[in-house]
Each structure stands twice: as structure tokens, then as C-alpha cells.
Design a protein that fits this description.
The protein has about 280 residues and is mainly beta. The chain contains one helix and 19 strands. A hairpin with a 4-residue loop joins strand 18 and strand 19. The longest helix is centred in the N-terminal third of the chain and has 16 residues. This is SH3 domain-containing protein. Keywords: Signal.
Length: about 280
């Protein structure tokens, strides 16, 4: 059964969501610096004459097109839980340089290049879901994806959940080693997190091998000062205590009761990697 803290957390999220109807603010993951390059995430993203969905369409850009952020406009568009500013941009097609406005939600929130491949991280949609245990509670669930592109061709893509809008304050996207897993070329790690206590952060590891992306089970971490925390991590073969062609899921949880006594939980799961896929041992 879920803890009392979890129930209160879900109800708090619902209250905050209702309050947002009166004041729309941009998610921090969609904050982009002026005079900095960015990349298009959503294919056939429309470029408009002004920062408005009804403005004239000037052009459309494909996934992985590089653009330059010229200026952030104060206008914010909300689609589901994705709330982003419009940006004035410039871009080049052939020998021609053009300008226009783009919605920030269509841009990558992280991108990396390695071994001739471009890896892109972006938020894709919001889905209204019911909580599995407390079905009277509706949750706005965001989804993200990681794409791998070679030149202008999309090679592969994997999607995963990223929690509610409160978890979209901060993001990172990094390339790590192969963690000594057989046949794995490299590992990608995409993270989104919130800034307040009680707001979950999500870590998504994605393996890259033979031009394929393989998403590992998602990790979630959340804490509330010294009253409660829930942490999840993987132990890979190159970590201290790691085993060959194995990665271990480790969970720790602590919650204090009304008498300030700590109640702790721990769990371990072992996943076997055969060079192509993984399975629970």
C-alpha cells in the first residue's frame, strides 16, 4: 500500500494543477538562452511570422535542424502540461538565412553528438491518466523521448514518462560510457526534476547498440526534507560492487512516523544483459 506521504503528494499536485488555470508559467526545461544554438525536436515544426498559433506560417523545419535563439518572447503557449515561451529564431537552409518565431516546446531540451550520431531529448505530449491505486485521482502524465539521428535520417526513438508539470523545472542530458555492458556502444542519461520538496525527479537510462535505442526501467527519486525520501539507482558492471553483464536496481526509502521514528525499506533487483537485451533475474 502507498504511504500517506504519497497520497498527500498526489492531492497536492491536483491542487496546484487547479491553481495553474489562473496563472500560466513556463516550464523551466523550455528555458533557452539568447544567442545560443538549439535544435528542432518535433518534426515539421512550424515557423510563424509572430508569436501566435494563428500567425502566418512562414516555413517548417525538420528534426535535428539547428537554429539560433535570437530573443525570448514573453508570450507563453500551454499544450497539456507543456508550457513554453515563444522564441524569435534565425536558421539557414542552403545559402538562405531566415527568421521567424517558434514555440519552445518543439525544441530539444538536450542534444549530444557522438561517433557521427546526433542524440536528441525532448518532451512530446501530456496524457490524462488515473492513478493505478487511487482511481479517483487524475494525473497529468508527461511523456518524453530520445531520438538518434544520422544526418537527416531518424534511426530510432524511445519514449518514456516524465511525471507531472512540477517535475519539469530542470533537465540534463548526458552521454556516459558503455558501463562495460557487452556490445553496448554508449549509454544516454536523460533527467527531469522539480525544484520543490515532494516533487519527483526521473532518470531515464538508454543503451545504444547497433543503431538501436534500448530504454532501461525508469528511476524515480523524491524527498521531503528529513521526513521522507525515496531513492532509486542502478549499479552497473563498472561501479563498485558491479557484476559482469549485469545491472542492479537499488531502492532505499525512509519515512518518519508521528513519533519521529524512522521506518526504512530497501529493495534490490538484478537484471541480466545478454549483449542484446535484458531480463529480470
Amino acid at each position: 500500500m502507498k504511504s500517506l506521504f504519497t497520497v498527500l503528494f498526489l492531492l497536492t499536485v491536483q491542487v496546484f494543477s487547479a491553481q495553474e488555470e489562473d496563472y500560466v508559467y513556463a516550464n523551466g526545461v523550455f528555458s533557452f538562452e539568447e544567442n545560443k544554438p538549439q535544435k528542432i525536436f518535433t518534426d515539421w515544426t512550424r515557423i510563424r511570422q509572430s508569436p501566435n498559433v494563428n500567425a502566418q506560417i512562414l516555413d517548417s523545419l525538420q528534426t535535428n535542424q539547428q537554429i539560433l535563439i535570437l530573443k525570448k518572447d514573453e508570450t507563453i503557449l500551454k499544450l497539456g502540461e507543456r508550457r513554453a515561451n515563444w522564441y524569435k529564431i534565425s536558421y539557414q537552409k542552403g545559402d538562405k538565412t531566415s527568421e521567424g518565431y517558434i514555440w519552445g516546446g518543439n525544441l530539444c531540451v538536450g542534444f549530444r553528438n557522438k561517433n557521427g550520431y546526433d542524440f536528441l531529448f525532448g518532451l512530446t505530449k501530456t496524457v490524462n491518466k488515473k492513478d493505478k491505486e487511487y482511481t479517483e485521482i487524475n494525473i497529468q502524465q508527461n511523456y518524453a523521448s530520445v531520438k538518434v539521428v544520422e544526418g537527416n535520417a531518424l534511426i530510432d526513438e524511445v519514449s518514456f514518462e516524465t511525471g507531472s508539470g512540477e517535475s519539469l523545472s530542470y533537465r540534463t542530458f548526458n552521454i556516459e560510457s558503455n558501463h562495460k555492458l557487452q556490445n553496448v556502444e554508449l549509454t544516454l542519461k536523460a533527467t527531469v526534476s522539480g525544484e520543490a520538496c515532494g516533487i519527483a525527479s526521473y532518470d531515464q537510462y538508454v543503451l545504444f547498440k547497433d543503431k538501436k535505442l534500448i530504454a532501461l526501467p525508469q528511476l524515480m527519486n523524491v524527498g521531503d526534507a528529513d521526513v521522507y525520501y525515496h531513492s532509486e539507482e542502478f549499479i552497473f558492471p563498472n561501479d563498485k560492487g558491479g557484476l559482469p553483464n549485469t545491472f542492479i536496481f537499488k531502492m532505499e526509502e525512509m519515512e518518519k512516523d508521528e513519533k519521529n521514528r524512522e521506518k526504512k525499506k530497501n529493495a534490490l533487483k538484478t537484471y541480466l544483459w545478454n549483449g542484446n537485451s535484458y531480463k529480470l533475474k
